[in-house]
């Protein structure tokens, strides 16, 4: 048998000296949350530079055949109690001049380990081959991939004032930017939109490497015009320094000291917004926020800490509470628990993972699932002083939790916002997460856990002719308006408003104990979703004219888990964002059986699918090009401008503008304009789909069903593999027979039990804090990042997102 040094020399071909561009993992196992501080330490593959815990390094050897590993073990170093603290000089963590958390110091020990027999050689040692010594030195000197991402994200961005800001030319073309309903002027994108600060054009951002994002229209506009600065719509808040301003010639995010003036040029007046922030935020909202913090986080109450399987906290990576709260509730569902924990071991996921498991969503979800649910890491943390100096460490109430770094890096890779360290909207993250899970499971219904949230919605449109149309769509969440007029405590509210007025006259402030908030029953929010809604200017193919129709909505299927989103954030006049300060009375059990859509009834007649082209031409005028071009120059979508001109009979720009501003939120505002009874399909979009190999008739049908959006059309084709031109369904007269995608959804009874609440504290989804409360093992549990405990008073009436599980009995 070879001696250890000869064995190492015989495997030198499997040892690499890392290049500066190599990602080196040396702080966390790729398959688990083991670290060098774990009992078995960490093993770094000296060929791939991936790290593995003691239980998992053998799997890597079996899969890759890589035998040589650098073993890193950290043990606590005794530290003097009177160690002085260094004053930070830089807004950063973990770098010279940054914050020092006074964390316990550890002593590192290294060795070279050769598998499969775990033959060990000490390091450092002059007897080791030079290649091995050089490789280890390079690994130890290199910034770990995990640490590199963490420090880069934590270091404050040093934005510079743009050289183009102070003398920015602005063109007065009468553009007034509405507070909502934005869309790219050159395509149908409604997200990632940028307002050019010179001419007011609203255009989409850059296309990402994976095809997501925008269509590059904003940067193309800069190349055509040379207009240098644009601000991202949706990032503009009362704090203008937080707005995302980009300089194309400087090719980076910049500061615009005159941003308020530049925005006011296009009708966005921030003076009232700032004034509101200075008064309301420091008086009422401050009181409300303090109340929210105490109530939602259950501050001041003796919360019993809980440890064990299913009770593992998630370390806050820096404004990652939106991710933590969402994922805790997601992994409390049977579907995700089964898919990524009970039915899939870490070894199974690793065996099917690519060469680098850190970039595989399936692997990282399995890692997260096992980390949260196994209980392996849900143990009480050790007190710092005791841990460093005492022979017998003592446990504190707080557990350490697990840091979801690798999961966050994978799930955020295709999203420019979630990859930052900024606070995000938990609802947007939840929908993005489910979309990624659905994609990675490749449409395999039997293994896709995201389907447990999916359901069908059917809109029934009753024309004044007595005939009907049915439209269907799929969704993961039921987004509900909050009808404040349905408050059950109107008398108390009136008394409070009177008291508030009196206090203001006296120059006094209302105390937090005196504030009365509206109480709206959840039943009223659900009823608001289903209640009849008038659609004005509805073109009836039966009457061959515009009329008023009545739209009602219902569910075609009931999901295993029903997610209700409460629309607490609204935009008031003058671009003032407002969070509705309201309680929602949510019962533990709800029954939505009455919300099931009945579909086409025997006594109902569908609206005709179309009318002769000459009849349409006589009823519907063609949009005046001059009116449309003037409206488009103001930043509105070309389709919206055409509709405005048509619906005002080409009366003029002012009339069309007024119509447009009052119809921005119409449910059919994005529906293609019909000509000859047929939906017009954009030829370039059709050509694009056909270049993918789809048949023309199928591509045409997909574009009709998706409103001309290529990405949605592609998804539609994959979800409707049997689609053909012969079974064409027009958007206004959809056949109520379930489509294959609709028919495959989970379904059952309409009784549900409340199992999870994601609550938000703060005045905006882009700031503040998220906390989850979950009903587990017969009791409510609070998950506040890495703090997990028995909930005493769960804030059921203060939720932002509610999760319900269907009752089987």
TrEMBL record:
Keywords: Hydrolase, Metal-binding, Protease, Repeat, Thiol protease, Ubl conjugation pathway, Zinc, Zinc-finger. Residues 160-270 form the UBP-type domain. It is an enzyme of class 3 (hydrolase). Zn(2+) binds at residues 184, 187, 204, 217. GO terms for biological process: cell communication; protein deubiquitination; proteolysis; signaling. Residues 724-746 are annotated as: Disordered. The active site is at 321 (nucleophile), 769 (proton acceptor). PROSITE patterns: UBA, USP_1, USP_2, USP_3, ZF_UBP. Its EC number is 3.4.19.12. Residues 622-663, 680-720 form the UBA domain. It catalyses: Thiol-dependent hydrolysis of ester, thioester, amide, peptide and isopeptide bonds formed by the C-terminal Gly of ubiquitin (a 76-residue protein attached to proteins as an intracellular targeting signal). GO terms for molecular function: cysteine-type deubiquitinase activity; zinc ion binding. Pfam families: UBA, UCH, zf-UBP, zf-UBP_var. Residues 312-807 form the USP domain. Residues 724-734 have a biased composition (Low complexity). PANTHER family: UBIQUITIN CARBOXYL-TERMINAL HYDROLASE, UBIQUITIN CARBOXYL-TERMINAL HYDROLASE 14. Belongs to the peptidase C19 family. Recognizes and hydrolyzes the peptide bond at the C-terminal Gly of ubiquitin. Involved in the processing of poly-ubiquitin precursors as well as that of ubiquitinated proteins. This is Ubiquitin carboxyl-terminal hydrolase. It comes from Rhamnella rubrinervis.
């Amino acid at each position: 048998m070879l001696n250890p040094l000869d064995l190492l020399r015989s495997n030198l071909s499997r040892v690499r000296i890392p290049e500066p561009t190599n990602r080196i993992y040396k702080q966390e196992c790729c398959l688990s949350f083991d670290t060098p501080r774990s009992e078995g330490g960490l093993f770094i593959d000296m060929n791939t530079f991936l790290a593995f815990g003691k239980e998992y390094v053998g799997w890597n050897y079996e899969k890759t055949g890589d035998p040589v590993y650098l073993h890193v073990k950290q043990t606590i170093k005794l530290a003097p109690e009177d160690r002085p603290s260094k004053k930070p000089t830089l807004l950063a963590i973990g770098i010279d001049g940054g914050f020092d958390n006074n964390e316990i110091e550890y002593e590192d020990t290294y060795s070279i380990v050769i598998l499969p027999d775990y033959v060990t050689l000490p390091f450092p040692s002059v007897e080791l081959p030079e290649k091995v010594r050089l490789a280890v030195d390079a690994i130890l000197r290199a910034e770990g991939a995990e640490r590199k991402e963490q420090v880069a994200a934590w270091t404050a961005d040093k934005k510079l004032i743009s050289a183009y800001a102070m003398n920015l030319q602005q063109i007065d073309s009468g553009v007034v930017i509405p507070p909502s309903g934005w869309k790219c002027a050159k395509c149908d994108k409604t997200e990632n939109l940028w307002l050019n600060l010179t001419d007011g054009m609203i255009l989409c951002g850059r296309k990402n490497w994976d095809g997501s994002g925008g269509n590059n229209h904003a940067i193309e506009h800069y190349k055509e015009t040379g207009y240098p600065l644009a601000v991202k719509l949706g990032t503009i808040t009362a704090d203008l320094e937080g707005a995302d301003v980009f300089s194309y010639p400087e090719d980076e995010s910049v500061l615009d000291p005159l941003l308020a003036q530049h925005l006011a040029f296009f009708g966005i007046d921030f003076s009232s917004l700032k004034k509101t922030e200075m008064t309301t935020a420091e008086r009422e909202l401050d009181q409300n926020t303090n109340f929210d913090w105490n109530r939602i986080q259950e501050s001041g109450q003796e919360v019993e800490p809980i440890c064990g399987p299913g009770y593992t906290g998630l370390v806050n990576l820096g404004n990652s509470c939106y991710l933590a709260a969402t994922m805790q509730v997601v992994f409390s569902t049977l579907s995700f628990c089964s898919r990524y924990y009970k039915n899939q071991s870490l070894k199974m996921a690793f065996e099917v993972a690519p060469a680098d498991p850190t970039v595989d969503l399936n692997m990282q979800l399995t890692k997260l699932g096992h980390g949260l649910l196994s209980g392996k890491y849900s143990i009480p943390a050790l007190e710092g002083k005791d841990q460093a100096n005492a022979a017998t460490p003592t446990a504190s109430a707080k557990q350490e939790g697990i840091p979801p770094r690798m999961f966050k890096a994978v799930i955020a890779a295709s999203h420019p916002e979630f990859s930052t360290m900024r606070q995000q909207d938990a609802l947007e993250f939840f929908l993005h997460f489910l979309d990624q899970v659905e994609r990675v499971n490749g449409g395999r219904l039997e293994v896709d856990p995201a389907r447990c949230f999916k359901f069908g919605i059917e809109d029934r449109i009753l024309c004044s002719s007595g005939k009907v149309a049915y439209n269907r769509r799929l969704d993961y969440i039921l987004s509900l308006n909050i009808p404040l007029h349905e408050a059950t405590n109107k008398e108390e509210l009136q008394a409070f408003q009177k008291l508030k007025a009196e206090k203001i006259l006296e120059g006094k402030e209302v105390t937090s104990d005196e504030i009365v908030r509206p109480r709206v029953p959840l039943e009223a929010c659900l009823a608001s979703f289903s209640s009849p809604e008038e659609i004005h200017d509805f073109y009836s193919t039966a009457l061959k004219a515009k009329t008023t129709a009545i739209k009602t909505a219902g569910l075609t299927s009931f999901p295993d888990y029903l997610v209700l989103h409460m629309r607490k954030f609204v935009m008031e006049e003058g671009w003032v964002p407002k969070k509705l300060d309201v309680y929602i009375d949510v019962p533990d059990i709800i029954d939505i059986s009455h919300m099931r859509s009945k579909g086409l009834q025997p006594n109902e007649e569908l609206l005709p699918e179309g009318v002769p082209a000459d009849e349409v031409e006589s009823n519907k005028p063609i949009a005046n090009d001059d009116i449309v071009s003037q409206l488009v120059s103001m930043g509105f979508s070309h389709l919206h401008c055409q509709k405005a001109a048509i619906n005002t009979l080409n009366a003029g720009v002012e009339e069309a503008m007024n119509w447009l501003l009052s119809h921005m939120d119409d449910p059919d505002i994005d529906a293609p304009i019909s000509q000859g009874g047929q939906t017009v399909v954009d030829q370039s979009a059709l050509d694009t789909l056909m270049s993918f190999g789809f048949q023309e008739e199928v591509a045409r049908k997909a574009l009709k069903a998706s409103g001309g959006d290529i990405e949605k059309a592609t998804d539609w084709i994959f979800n409707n593999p049997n689609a053909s031109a012969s079974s064409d369904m027009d958007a206004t007269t959809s056949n109520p027979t379930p489509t294959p995608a609709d028919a495959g959804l989970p379904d059952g009874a309409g009784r549900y039990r409340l199992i999870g609440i994601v609550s938000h504290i703060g005045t905006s989804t882009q700031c503040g804090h998220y906390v989850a409360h979950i009903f587990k093992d017969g009791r409510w549990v609070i998950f506040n990042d890495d703090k997990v405990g028995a909930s005493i008073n769960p804030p059921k009436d203060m939720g932002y997102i509610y999760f319900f599980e269907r009752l089987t009995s």
